């Protein structure tokens, strides 16, 4: 998820109705939300501390993918057709090859990988009858370990008749050497309500953390009352994880629902620019902790330059929408009129680069 603009987040059906009602506007949801409750003061705390960033991604695979007889490396497709860089994930993942079949639908859990921050699973779904081009997989992932600050994303796409591939990612604020995981798919449906297949496709397995090398950075930048600190960088055999915090005083946030930080550019001193995606974050309204995952850094690079952007959001009318800065370039006149009347407009602040020395 490149942008943490909450207007672009798809909300899990398992979230509290108050949270879903607050951030549902404009999203395609797995379940129909109830209208917003009266607990507006509680919404900010729930969104900030429980979960930010659960999305479902529609993947645009090429026609050639439909012609492949067996899908062997889902990571390769995800790397090419999503924001994430998963090119080398297959080499370091755990092969599961676990199969569950129910109601004529066979689901094969292919691979799992855990980098100490994010666990990612890939699967293949085969059906006796074709279910169309777009389906919704109602799934969840749980670990036996007590983990806080969970955020995640998932996606599924048809690759040929009767065959789909999918993934689920879940990031945590705590690191473990090993995770004991339960992954379960409860139902398959689509947005047109053409079908709703309830079932029980359940998997249990464990996965160990990949090797990691941690660089303590503690480099920060302060601008317009916002302080962004890159605390550390985790290097794995296939990725680079940037851990950073956002600190904003109450007086700077006055009138705003909250703020979120994304890294708009990560580049090294050799001119390489790295693509990646945010993993979400957890914390409070004034202090948030985030992580973002990128590809491997060129071993010849000596410095990494990170450009943070902070987006200030406003709670919409009746508390049913969190409005980010992108609204200022839209033609949603009613929303713009509401914001002008409210007297607080969403905004973004692009901070100066944070430069990290990689050769400490």
Radius of gyration: 21 Å
Main β sheet profile: 6 strands, mixed
Number of structural domains: 2
Number of helices: 6
Q: What sequence of helices (H) and strands (E) makes up the elements? A: HHEHHEEEEEEEEEEEHEEEEEHEE
| Strand elements, count | 19
Strand content: over 45%
Q: Kindly identify the CATH topology of the largest domain.
A: Immunoglobulin-like
Please tell me the CATH architecture of the largest domain by its name: Sandwich
Shape: globular
| N- and C-termini, Cα separation | 30 Å
Give the strand line-up of the largest sheet: 1-6-7-4-3-2
CATH superfamily of the largest domain: bacillus anthracis domain
User: What percentage of residues falls in helices of 4 or more residues?
Assistant: 10-25%
Write down the overall mean pLDDT.
81
Class from helix and strand fractions:
mainly beta
Short description:
With about 350 residues, the chain is mostly beta strands.
């Amino acid at each position: 998820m490149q942008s943490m603009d909450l207007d672009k987040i798809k909300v899990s059906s398992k979230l509290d109705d108050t949270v879903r009602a607050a951030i549902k506007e404009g999203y395609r949801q797995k379940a129909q939300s109830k209208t917003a409750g009266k607990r507006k003061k509680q919404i900010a705390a729930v969104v900030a501390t429980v979960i930010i960033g659960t999305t479902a991604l529609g993947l645009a695979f090429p026609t050639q993918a439909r012609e492949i007889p067996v899908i062997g490396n889902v990571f390769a497709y995800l790397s090419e057709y999503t924001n994430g860089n998963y090119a080398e994930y297959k080499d370091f993942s755990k092969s599961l090859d676990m199969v569950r079949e129910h109601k004529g639908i066979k689901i094969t859990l292919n691979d799992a990988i855990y980098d100490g921050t994010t666990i990612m699973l890939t699967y293949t779904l085969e059906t006796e009858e074709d279910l169309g081009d777009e389906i919704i997989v109602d799934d969840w992932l749980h670990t036996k370990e007590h983990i806080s600050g969970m955020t995640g994303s998932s996606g599924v796409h048809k690759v040929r008749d009767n065959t789909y591939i999918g993934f689920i990612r879940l990031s945590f604020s705590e690191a473990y050497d090993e995770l004991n995981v339960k992954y379960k798919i409860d139902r398959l449906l689509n947005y047109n309500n053409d079908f709703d297949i309830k079932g029980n496709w359940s998997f249990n397995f464990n996965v160990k953390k990949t090797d990691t090398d941690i660089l303590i950075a503690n480099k920060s930048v302060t601008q317009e009352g916002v302080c962004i600190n890159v605390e550390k960088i985790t290097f794995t055999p296939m990725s680079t994880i940037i851990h950073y915090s956002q600190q904003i005083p109450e007086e700077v946030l006055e009138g705003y629902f909250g703020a979120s930080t994304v890294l708009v550019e990560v580049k090294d001193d050799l001119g390489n620019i790295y693509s990646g995606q945010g993993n979400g974050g957890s914390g409070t309204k004034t202090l948030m902790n985030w992580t973002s995952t990128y590809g491997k850094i060129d071993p010849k690079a000596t410095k990494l330059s990170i450009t943070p952007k902070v987006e200030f959001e406003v709670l919409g009318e009746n508390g049913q929408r969190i409005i980010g800065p992108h609204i200022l370039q839209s033609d949603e006149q009613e929303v713009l009129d509401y914001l002008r009347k409210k007297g607080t407009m969403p905004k973004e602040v692009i901070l100066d680069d944070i430069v990290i020395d990689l050769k400490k």
